[in-house]
């Protein structure tokens, strides 16, 4: 619901999932047509990274601004030198941006292809039957990868929120000659079977890191490449433009200077973990999202995943931004007081692929974090 009175900038709208928020809290964002800016149970927690507070304290420490017996002119000159030095030190501190992406109907399209809603949004300009056919082909390919290479038939009922969730049960055994088919992984879900699950998770992580080219045969690689190309063409470049944006976010592109920024891409998806990892590989996201940064909110919810990510990366110069199409991630971002960018596949939507770019996301983040700083 729009609220012009309380909107801090022309490009920001109140979240439809939280219309009563004050401007200092979180918003869901949409681009304004007349904007002046150019368009361009919880399982386990992870330890926080080494705190950055000491670094920040040192960089902002202020030396004395006067010297006993010095003249007012000298004190003024020294003040200017100190201020300039502090500003320069601040500029040297890198900001870490953590982007938390939804997967389905955000970075990839699948459900809307299967049910024809993507084609329907184009008022007859897109072939409905072709949409459904593409979606079914993706569905079959995802299931085949899961079953043939990711032990999915065995571990489907043992979903975990992230791949290292049972790492404590992994004794580091060399899996080079390990016979997964003979280890009798089954219920009950006791410590012994958790170790066997941990082995499987480690093997999946290693395959993810290697990439599909080292997993699939030549025929399946061609099937996969052809399907990706057909999908990207049908969706006007949705997949490739989303991938390019994640590359830019990581500083792999010169589209926007990143000297003062470092960044992390995370995926939080409502799907179960193993198929979600398979999707990352098949939709070519594995080079921009590490398997350690893929979270399944299937059982724990997106808010819990967001909290884990914040605990893992939080610091005085770390900023978070959630990007997705659903109400759950919008509400979770609202509670975390993070910026949220709403993705829609309708052709006239303000944020979609192709179209969404890094400067737009950064303007949204700057607006929210600057507003939060001003509010104290």
Automatic annotation (TrEMBL):
Binds 1 Mg(2+) ion per subunit. GO terms for cellular component: nucleus. The keyword Hydrolase applies. It is an enzyme of class 3 (hydrolase). The keyword Chaperone does not apply. It catalyses: O-phospho-L-tyrosyl-[protein] + H2O = L-tyrosyl-[protein] + phosphate. Its cofactor is Mg(2+). GO terms for molecular function: metal ion binding; protein tyrosine phosphatase activity. It comes from the Eukaryota. GO terms for biological process: cell differentiation; positive regulation of DNA repair. Its EC number is 3.1.3.48. Keywords: Hydrolase, Magnesium, Metal-binding, Protein phosphatase. Mg(2+) binds at residues 102, 104, 325. The active site is at residues 102, 104. Gene3D superfamilies: 3.40.50.12350. NCBIfam families: EYA-cons_domain (TIGR01658). Belongs to the HAD-like hydrolase superfamily. EYA family. This is protein-tyrosine-phosphatase.
């Amino acid at each position: 619901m729009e609220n012009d009175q309380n909107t801090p900038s022309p490009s920001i709208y109140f979240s439809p999932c939280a219309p009563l928020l004050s401007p200092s809290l979180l918003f869901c964002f949409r681009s304004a047509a007349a904007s002046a800016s150019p368009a361009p149970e919880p399982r386990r927690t992870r330890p926080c990274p080494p705190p950055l507070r000491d670094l920040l304290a040192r960089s902002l420490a202020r030396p004395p601004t006067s010297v006993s017996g010095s003249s007012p002119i000298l004190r003024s000159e020294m003040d200017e030198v100190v201020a300039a030095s502090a500003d320069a030190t601040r500029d040297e501190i890198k900001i870490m941006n953590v982007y938390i992406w939804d997967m389905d109907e955000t970075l990839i399209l699948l459900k809307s292809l299967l049910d024809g809603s993507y084609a329907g949004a184009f008022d007859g300009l897109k072939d409905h039957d072709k949409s459904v056919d593409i979606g079914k082909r993706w569905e079959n390919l995802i299931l085949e990868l899961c079953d043939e290479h990711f032990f999915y038939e065995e571990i489907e009922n043992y979903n975990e929120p992230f791949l290292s969730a049972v790492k404590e049960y992994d004794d580091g055994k060399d899996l080079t000659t390990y016979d997964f088919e003979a280890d009798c992984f089954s219920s009950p879900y006791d410590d012994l079977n958790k170790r066997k699950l941990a082995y499987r998770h480690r093997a999946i992580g290693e395959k993810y890191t290697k990439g599909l080219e080292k997993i699939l045969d030549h025929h399946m690689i061609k099937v996969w490449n052809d399907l990706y190309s057909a999908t990207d063409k049908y969706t006007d470049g949705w997949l490739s433009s989303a991938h390019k944006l994640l590359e830019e976010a990581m500083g792999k592109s010169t589209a926007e200077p990143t000297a003062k920024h470092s960044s992390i891409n995370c995926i939080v998806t409502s799907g179960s973990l193993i198929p979600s990892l398979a999707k990352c590989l098949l939709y070519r996201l594995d080079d921009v999202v590490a398997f350690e940064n893929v979270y399944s909110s299937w059982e724990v919810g997106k808010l819990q995943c967001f909290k884990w990510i914040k605990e893992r990366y939080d610091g005085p110069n770390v900023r978070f931004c959630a990007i997705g199409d659903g109400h759950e991630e919008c509400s979770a971002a609202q509670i975390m007081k993070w910026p949220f960018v709403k993705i829609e596949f309708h052709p006239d939507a303000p944020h979609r692929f192709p179209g969404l770019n890094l400067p737009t996301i950064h303007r949204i983040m700057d607006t929210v974090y600057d507003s939060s700083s001003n509010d104290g």
